[in-house]
Design brief:
86 residues, three-stranded antiparallel β-sheet
């Protein structure tokens, strides 16, 4: 769904705080291009903490027991200049 979310942010020039996974996906090209479209962006990788995510359903065949999976997660503040907002 990240592609859909980013498309809406770009289409509406919405100011947002976005928490997103750092694994390579198609939508990261769109994410990086927002700066070229005029958005001001500040990005920070969040620290891995066991209480950062709640446990979800166990992935079949995944090893590791009940430990929380390690995700690299970042947070971006995206602000569009006033002349670009709709």
């Amino acid at each position: 769904m990240m592609g859909e979310i980013l498309r809406k942010v770009v289409d509406e020039h919405a100011d947002v705080v976005l928490v997103y996974p750092e694994w390579p996906r198609y939508w990261q090209v769109m994410f990086r291009s927002m700066g070229e479209r005029g958005a001001q962006m500040a990005v920070k990788e969040l620290p891995h903490r066991p209480d950062l995510f709640s446990k979800g359903p166990r992935v079949p065949g995944r090893r590791g027991g009940d430990r929380a999976p390690f995700y690299r997660v970042s947070c971006a503040v995206i602000v569009w200049p006033a002349h670009l907002r709709k």
